[in-house]
Specification:
Number of domains: 1
CATH class: Alpha Beta
Shape: rod-shaped
CATH superfamily: Ribosomal protein L7/L12, C-terminal domain/Adaptor protein ClpS
Oligomer: single chain
Structural class: alpha+beta
Number of strands: 3
Radius of gyration: 23 Å
Largest sheet: 3 strands, antiparallel
Distance between the termini: 60 Å
CATH architecture: 2-Layer Sandwich
Helix content: 40-55%
């Protein structure tokens, strides 16, 4: 007599979670000139003249501007560079 063994069903699921997004934010300050901020944004982020001017205008009029979004480590690096240039910058988490 032959006995048949049945293999139990195994349910699996895969959960994929994306790493949170972080924003590099430049804040207005009373020290840096408009032209200097434009220069720094172009040098660090490769913005063209129009983009850099708009971001700098946002900083001036709104008090801050998001200049980059992405992963935490790279964001920390950009904040460090901005601080080295004398700008006021911070890394902020984007809420899901």
């Amino acid at each position: 007599m032959s006995q048949t063994l049945e293999t139990p069903e195994v349910l699996t699921s895969t959960v994929t979670s994306l790493a949170p997004t972080w924003n590099v934010v430049v804040y207005n300050d009373p020290v840096n000139l408009f032209t200097y901020v434009i220069y720094v944004l172009k040098a660090l982020f490769g913005f063209n003249d129009t983009e850099a001017k708009q971001k700098t205008l946002d900083v001036h009029q709104k008090g801050k501007s998001i200049v980059w979004s992405g992963g935490r480590e790279e964001g920390e690096h950009y904040v460090s560079l901005l601080l080295d240039y004398g700008l006021t910058a911070k890394l902020e988490s984007v809420e899901p």
